[in-house]
Structures are given as structure tokens and as C-alpha cells.
């Protein structure tokens, strides 16, 4: 399990190969207990998080992205899993502070 990529896990949420009946309905929806919506929207959110993560991990530029929107999307997806974790994250999360400093330098 530890060897499986984030892309693999995100693909399980996709529309492919009758995943709705075989994976989403019986089990995968439980991984996101606070999500109410279409699986495609969740998949799109997770894909954005995966692409941002890949850019960062491969030391590619992210300065052109709307990092504030990316940050909100990450917190939204985390909230689908655990709203309490979003609250706990707020104690150590400095992204908004860093982005404000970046905007002031322009």
C-alpha cells in the first residue's frame, strides 16, 4: 500500500471501468464521510491537489498558479475527510501569511 502513488488513489475516484458500483458505492465513499456531491467534482479537486503536489515534488515552478485557490482546495478536500483536521491544521498553517507577504513584495 505504501508503494502506491497518489495518482493511483485519485484514479480510484474517477469514472473509469464501472468504479461507481464496484468501488465508490460499496466502500470508497466512506473515505470522504463529509462529502456530499458528485464523484466527478471530488475527482477534479483531488486531481488539482495531485498536480500541485507533483509540481512541488519535482521542483517545478508554481508561481503562476492561483496558490490561494489551491490552498483552499486542499483544505476543502481535507475537510471532506476530517473537518477537525482542518481546525488542527490552522494552528500551524502559514500559507496565507506567506502569500500575503508575497503580494506585498509586488
How would you characterize this protein structure?
The protein has one domain (6-105). It is mainly α. The protein is built from 6 helices and no strands. The longest helix has 19 residues, at 39-57.
Q: What general outline do the C-alpha atoms trace?
A: globular
Q: Unreliable runs, pLDDT <50, ≥5 residues?
A: none
**What can be said about the biggest beta sheet?**
none
Order of helices and strands: HHHHHH
Assign a percent range to the helix content.
55-70%
Average of pLDDT: 89
Number of domains: 1
How many β-strand runs?
0
Structural class: mainly alpha
Strand content: under 5%
Gist?
Helix 3 crosses helix 4. With 106 residues, this protein is mostly helical.
Architecture blueprint of SSEs:
Blueprint: H1 6-11, H2 19-24, H3 39-57, H4 67-81, H5 83-89, H6 95-105
Helix pairs in contact: 3-4, 4-5
Q: Could you list some keywords that capture this structure?
A:
6 helices, single chain, 106 residues, 0% strand
Amino acid at each position: 500500500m505504501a508503494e502506491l502513488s497518489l495518482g493511483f488513489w485519485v484514479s480510484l475516484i474517477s469514472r473509469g471501468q464501472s468504479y461507481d458500483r464496484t468501488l465508490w458505492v460499496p466502500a470508497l465513499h466512506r473515505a470522504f464521510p463529509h462529502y456530499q456531491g458528485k464523484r466527478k467534482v471530488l475527482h477534479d479537486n483531488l486531481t488539482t491537489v495531485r498536480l500541485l503536489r507533483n509540481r512541488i515534488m519535482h521542483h517545478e515552478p508554481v508561481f503562476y498558479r492561483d496558490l490561494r485557490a489551491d490552498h483552499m482546495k486542499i483544505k476543502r478536500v481535507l475537510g471532506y475527510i476530517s473537518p477537525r483536521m482542518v481546525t488542527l491544521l490552522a494552528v500551524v498553517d502559514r500559507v496565507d501569511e506567506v502569500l500575503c507577504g508575497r503580494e506585498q513584495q509586488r
